[in-house]
Amino acid sequence: MTCRFAAFFSAVVLIMHGLATPAQAQKHQLLQARDGSGIVGYKDTPVQPWSGFHVHDPDRPAPPIITPPESSDQDREGKAPSDAIVLFDGTGLDAWRPNQWKIEDRCLISTQGPMATKEEFGDCQLHLEWLVPVEPTESMWNRGNNGVFLLGKIEVQIFDSHSTHIYPDGQAAAIYAQTPPLVNACRPAGQWQTFDIVFTAPKFDDDGKLSAPARITMFHNEVLVHLNQEVYGHTPHLNLASFDGIPTQGPVSLGAHGCPVRFRNIWIRRLATE
To answer: Which of 42, 94, 183, 226 has the least C-beta neighbours within 10 A?
Structure first.
């Protein structure tokens, strides 16, 4: 990969996340993994103290690829538990703050700008279903690119990791810029996928110091991909996490990078864990 080619794709990635101008983006050089796997990432980013790898390191071991249970496109109605708050059931957007997203064929379609719930949540169980379009995108970096944000700050990545080789801490079901999933359980584009997330919000003492980090247990397509995984703070692109400014309650948000990812059956349960 030439330096010019690497700089171009570095710019694409950073601008896609809304974090840099073209000139700023070229400060980071995109590299291919040394093992010839085709995975791309960065080596000029900070080293994560919890893993020993750079943020978005292409040489971090990629999760093993497995085949999840066969997908089912059964009836979309009546899947939420009786004590759940239904965030989207194929009809209106009353649970969400004003946004530019659209509804088509009882699916929520990503357009531009983040989408956030009106209510705020701490400890919770979250279910959502998503589908990556089969149509090609202008850039490989926008293949199904989206994400679900807990507390509005902590992103679990949505991406077409069935066909696209991106750095392990940015692939589908990764806690973005922190921890890859235990396995790659992605289905092909055009098939519905599920996330089931159990989230424990961080705790702070009376002085505002972190007393217990956030944690995530998660299933992707019914396969365990995180087990009580520690969360190290917010999830910035190309940088280290911290708990500065992280609340104990916040909205559930969905990202948007111009890729028309579809969503359905989104519900959440508050958990009384204390």
So the answer is: 94
